[in-house]
Amino acid sequence: MDNPEHYEYRIQINPYLLNADLNIIFAGAARPEPLHKIGPAVHPYILIHTVESGCGTFVWQGKSYRLGQGDTFVIFPGVLFSYEADHTEPWSYRWVAIQGPNALEMLKKTGITTTDPIVRGADPEHLAGLFESIERVLEQQSGETVTTLATDGWFRILLAEFARLNVHKLRYSSAGALTDSERAVEQAIRWFQTQYMLPVSIDKLAASLGYHRTHFTKVFKQLTSQSPKQYINQVRLERAKELLRTNLSVEQVGNSCGFTDPLYFSKQFKLWTGESPSQFREGLRRGADGNAGNKKA
DNA sequence: GTCACGTCTGAAAATAAATC
DNA sequence: GATTTATTTTCAGACGTGAC
To answer: Quick one: signal sequence residues (predicted)?
Structure first.
């Protein structure tokens, strides 16, 4: 597709627009002539540009941004903008337009907002590859499902790259960010949920996360309403209930859940469930037999 | 973050019940 | 009777919690 005042210009339109949370409307690339200007104007969609080479100026909410290779600027719907190619070294850029109820929120998560619509310092070749992948999918027109899934996938990788470049902003700007000690508790919970079969010392775990045992226990209980020991016991016993449905012996189930002593396992199981492991298993069998009997009847 | 103290955990030994 | 599995009791050390 030709476009005046451009050395090169191409655009791929998405023929399968859905009412999805996020829609890719079109994607393309251009190499305008020196001093080529768009705007002042507004768009009804979100338009993301990444500069592949050269430089230019983006004017947004009264502020002027000088942008070069690897920089990205984002135009939000309904907000006045303009941008202009440099007079000696005009830029070339790629773009993708999106819309949908989730689009703004997704951009915000990557650190792109109406007050900060710039991402700097990307590898231009890498980003160009992602834009090109979106273009190629749109060009192939392989049906609604393939096009939607593929463009969505490539676009999310693009967003991940923006988020990586904005990691310094995200680290300090998130209102709901976790404190260091809360993050330590989250790490401990993940450890409990995946390593429950291993012996655990709360003292060592707290030390490995950089906290004293008593302080760590306090924070853990504030967040989970359970002590670390109670929490891991709950994880272990829930896992034990699942394993008791198999043919493993009570001792094997206990070992698989982090109880090195089958006798202690039995005691704990009864404390939490009101039944010994064998009684619990017997209850499961009776239930299964009852169901089988009902099916026969 | 530390201390003191009461509580809980888990290993060991003894015992009981079930199965062959 | 031998073996396997589950339960109970005991106690040292680890843990949880309130006060500081």
So the answer is: none
